[in-house]
Structure formats: C-alpha cells, structure tokens
Automatic annotation (TrEMBL):
Main EC class the enzyme belongs to: isomerase
Name recorded for this polypeptide: Protein disulfide isomerase-like 1-4
Biological processes, Gene Ontology terms: protein folding; response to endoplasmic reticulum stress
Major localization listed first in the record, in broad terms: endoplasmic reticulum
Biased composition (Acidic residues): 58-75
Keywords: Disulfide bond, Endoplasmic reticulum, Glycoprotein, Isomerase, Redox-active center, Repeat, Signal
Localization annotation: Endoplasmic reticulum lumen
Length: 578
C-alpha cells in the first residue's frame, strides 16, 4: 500500500513538472518557427552591411574630406576600391625606395642592420601624400647605411598579417630584424631626423662660432647643452634625452663663445641647457637637475610655441605630446591678430600643463573640420578646452579676455567644469517612424526608462549609412505600432552625448527599458530587417508581438480599388506589412 501511495505522489509531481515545462517548450518552438518571411519582402533591394568590410577605424568613416559626396562614391571610398576608375599614382622619383614582396623580404632584413618598411595600399590617400616625402627621405638616407622600403599590403597579405597591419600606412623601423612602429611625423625632415637619432649618437658637437651661426640660422628649434666635457655622464644624459624627443635637435659645447651666442652666460655653473625657438617666447633656460627625465620634461613642456597654429603639419606635435589638456581659440584670420596675443599671455601661466592652440575657422582644409568637431560656428572668437584623456570638451562663456581665459583654464585643470556636448536644434515635429534624436533631446527619447530604444548613430556623408537607411526605415514601419519600442537615429557629426560613443559610422546601440543607467548594448548582428527584429525580440525588456498584415503606407492615398484588400487586412490583423 505504501509503495502504491509513493507511486501516486511521484506520478502527480511528474505531471505537474511536465505541465509547467511543455508550454515553455511550445512557446520557444513557436518563436523559433515564427514566419518572418513577410519582413523580408521589400520594395527595393536591402543591403546587408554586415557583409561589407569593417571600416569603423578608417579615416574616411571618421573625418570626411568633403561635406558633400557623390551618392555612388561611398562604398568605393570606404572599401578602398573603385573598379571603374582605378587610382593613378602621380610620377614620383622613388628609385631609392626598395620594393619588397614575400620573396625578398627575408633577404632585406638579413642583409640590413637598419631599415624602414612602409606597408601601404595604392588607394590610401595618406599613403599617396606620404609617397614623395618617403622617397625623398630614402634618397637622403641611402648614404647613411639605412634603406627605406615599401610593401603593397593589398598584394602581400601574408606579410601584412604577419606584421599586424590594420591601417595604412603602417611604418616600421627595423634594427637587426626587430621592428618597432615609427612614431614621428610623416614628412621627409621628420623621418630623416628620427632615423639619424636612432642610428647615431643623437647629439652633435658645436666647437666653432661658424657652426653655431649656421645652426641658429637653419634650425627652428634647438637645444644646446653647455657642459664641462663632451664625453661622460653629462653628455650621456643629454644624448639619452635626445633619443626620446624626435622633433628637437640636441647640441653640446664647451666653448664659452658658442654658449654666449646661444644666450647662455659663459660664467654660469655647468652643466647648463637652453632651448631656442623662433617664436614669441624665443629663449627657455633649464634650471633643474641635469638628468634625462628632468631634461625631457623641460623640453616637452617648452618646445611648442606659446600658441600653436593648428594645421596638418602641426597636428602630430599636438596629439603626440604627453600634454593632453588643450586650450583652443577659434577665430577667422582677419580678427586673429587681436586675440592670439591675449591667448599667448595666458598661455605663459600654464606651460607644461596646457597646449594652447589657434584654429583658423575660415580655413577649409584644417580649421573648419576642427570647428565642426567642437560645435563652433561663426567667425569667433570662441574658446574651447579639450581633455585628450577622456575626449571631453568644455566651453568658455563670456568675452575673450586675459582674465576670463585664466579663470577658465584654472577651472579646467582643477576639474571644476561641466562638459559641453554638441547638439542640433530639437526638431519641431518628430512624427516619423524613425525618431530624430539630437544632443538636447537624447535624455527624453533614448533614456526614457519605459521604452526599449534602438539607436543608429550615422554620418550624412557615410556610404554605409546611406545603404542602411531603407532597411532601417522599413524596420521602423513594421514596428510603428509597438508603443514600447523606439527606432531612432542621431547625426553623430553634429550631436553628442556621453551615452552615445561611436568609433565609426554607422554605430548601432540598444538601450533596454529599465536599464538606462548601464552602458548600452552594441548591436552586433546582421543589417537586415529580420536580423534587427530577432535582436529586438531577444533583448527587449518589454515583450512584444508582431503580426503580419498588409501595409498601407502613410504617405500614399488609398484607392477605391484597394477596398477589398483593406477589408481583408483589418479582419486579420492591425499590424502593417511592407
């Protein structure tokens, strides 16, 4: 009897477990078997961008050369290939640049103690700009026992993979077969100077007044050590510093007359050091401990002008500096003469802490893109601050005066400023299926805790974004009746928000309802309507169901002949189909 009772209890428990599990299995099966073919029906061809090359780190996707771009040029520019109009290289005298392939690469390394190798792509604009500078450097250095070479990474893919080539150009310096990335500017003088420092002593003796005058005439920035001896610990510290600083030439002397010509008191206690610049602040004297770290810190803090004029040539010295806090003046050329001296006076107070920069906003090539990045419009003057460590921007209010700049810079360095984020005006109407998000309505739309939000961060010039647009619009049309879902987009070139970080375009982010305090999810899925739909079904906090129906576009009038279709649609479902 007891055994029978146990059997009944076990049977009852098993029944209850099965009754609980089976519905869930059925539900999952129904979801897996959900007929989504109606989502794939399109009026035009939908592009699966996941199948295109990943270019989120490319310069083209981040900083366009032109605000307007031919409609058909996007994919060619971003994939780096044009079948109809192949790139034609200009004539460059590169006879001294060695062409390397898989077949001769090993011999090149084996037979040369020093060498430089550029991995390039024929279509790469940066590589094209580098080509004449690289060729000129090769010619100048061939007498120094250093060969410069190049590898077409689009043809030598095995070599490119072996050397971890992920961007163009990638330049390595090789010593006895060991390679390190070349860190300096991409022009002839920088390449030559950097390589000579790597293979030589890094420091040059100045023994005569003729040599001193030649150096002062030809060099824009020089450091001179006035030493007790041209060999020994003092010289070693100076030489070691020289190898750390690629863009400054270091000299040493024991000659009092040479020291005087370099604005050093001949009677000063040695070792002494001076940095000379062709700038508003022409002379900087070192008064610290004569060791590599202190000398390097002194030169780094003082080598830039009080105010650096932003250009393609000066950009590397700004962004590669160890000083990551920047103070920027934006103004047109015709009013800059009034405000640059004001910034120079303020900059003297923050040497070694801030880099002060003037950006000419009416310079289309270099100034306008920077102004756009900082959300600056008009003629100026406008002051902005930038922290390179966390990419935050700050805006100064009030007139551009010495006292205002001083107070603003002090608050910036002390961390007392609130970051500034760009924003377009909030749209007067926002009734489309894809909601338009700007910086100033981001919190209201995207961070609404009651909504699951899919956000595309795009750029108007981005070819991939244009290809995605019809698919994204179609997805929004299908989901327009789901009140808990928002399909949105934001122009990432003119709007910013700390929750919307983009490394390239398009960037797809998902903000689940009730979880807006956390970082958004990156949407790593295919770029079709079905892919997006499945992603949303899986990750949405608020469950939803989409039923098939016949779509009647909102912007098209309904004809009388379609009445039967409408009647059939309304009897089946209230959802819409494309």
């Amino acid at each position: 009897m007891t055994s029978f009772r146990c059997f009944l209890v076990l049977s009852l428990v098993s029944f209850l477990l099965l009754s609980t599990v089976l519905p869930s299995i059925s539900t999952n099966d129904e979801q897996d078997d959900e007929d989504l073919r109606f989502l794939e029906e399109t009026e035009g061809k939908s592009v699966d961008i996941a199948s295109l090359p990943h270019l989120s780190d490319s310069d083209d996707d981040q900083f366009p050369d032109n605000d307007e771009e031919d409609e058909d040029s996007g994919s060619e520019q971003e994939t780096g290939a044009s079948l109809s109009d192949p790139y034609k290289a200009p004539q460059i005298d590169d006879k001294d640049v060695v062409v390397l392939t898989q077949g001769n690469f090993s011999d090149f390394i084996k037979n040369n103690k020093f060498g430089m190798v550029e991995f390039y792509a024929p279509w790469c604009g940066h590589c094209q700009s580098l080509a004449p500078e690289y060729a000129a450097a090769a010619t100048e250095l061939k007498g120094e026992g250093v060969l410069l070479a190049k590898v077409d990474a689009t043809q030598e893919d095995e070599l490119a993979e072996e050397y971890d080539v992920e961007a163009f150009p990638t330049i390595y310096f090789l010593v006895d077969g060991k390679h390190t990335l070349y860190p300096a500017a991409r022009n002839k003088d920088a390449i030559v100077t950097w390589i000579k420092k790597q293979i030589g002593p890094g420091i040059y003796n100045v023994t005569t007044l003729d040599d001193a005058e030649r150096i002062l005439t030809s060099e824009s920035e020089v450091a001179l050590g006035y030493l007790n001896s041209l060999v020994g610990p003092e010289s070693d510290e100076l030489a070691a510093t020289s190898k750390l600083l690629d863009d400054i030439k270091f000299y040493q002397t024991m000659n009092p007359d040479v020291a005087k010509l370099f604005h050093i008191d001949p009677e000063v206690k040695r070792p002494a050091l001076v940095l000379l610049k062709k700038d508003a602040e022409k002379i900087c004297h070192f008064d610290g401990l004569f060791v590599k770290t202190a000398i390097s810190e002194f030169v780094t803090s003082n080598k830039l002008p009080l105010v650096t004029i932003f250009s393609r040539e000066s950009a590397p010295s700004i962004f590669e500096s160890s000083i990551k806090m920047h103070l920027l003046l934006f103004a047109t050329l015709n009013i800059s003469e009034k405000y640059i001296p004001v910034l120079q006076e303020a900059a003297k107070l923050f040497k070694g802490k801030l880099i002060s920069i003037y950006v000419q906003v009416d310079n289309e090539e270099s100034g306008k893109p920077v102004a756009n990045f900082f959300g600056v419009s008009g003629n100026g003057p406008t002051i902005r601050a930038y922290s390179g460590d966390d990419a935050k921007k700050f805006a100064m209010n009030g007139d551009v005066t010495f006292n205002n700049i001083k107070a603003f810079a002090e608050d910036f360095l002390a961390g007392r400023l609130k970051p500034f984020y760009k924003s377009d005006p909030i749209p007067e109407t926002n009734n489309e299926d894809v909601k338009e998000v700007v910086g100033d309505n981001f919190d209201e739309i995207v961070l609404d805790e009651s909504k699951d939000v899919l956000l595309e961060i795009y750029a108007p010039w981005c070819g991939h974004c244009r290809s995605l647009e019809p698919t994204y619009n179609k997805l929004a049309q299908h989901l327009r009746g789901i009140n808990s879902l928002v399909i949105a987009k934001m122009d990432g070139t003119t709007n910013e928000h700390p929750k919307a970080k983009s490394a390239g375009f398009p960037t797809m982010l998902f903000f689940p309802a009730g979880k807006k305090s956390f970082d958004p999810m990156k949407v790593n899925t295919g770029r079709t309507v079905v892919d997006f739909y499945k992603f949303l079904k899986e990750h949405a906090t608020i469950p939803f169901n989409l039923k098939k129906a016949v779509l009647v576009p909102k912007d098209k009038p309904t004809k009388t002949s379609d009445s039967k279709v409408r009647e059939k649609s309304s009897s089946v479902s209230s959802k819409e189909e494309l």
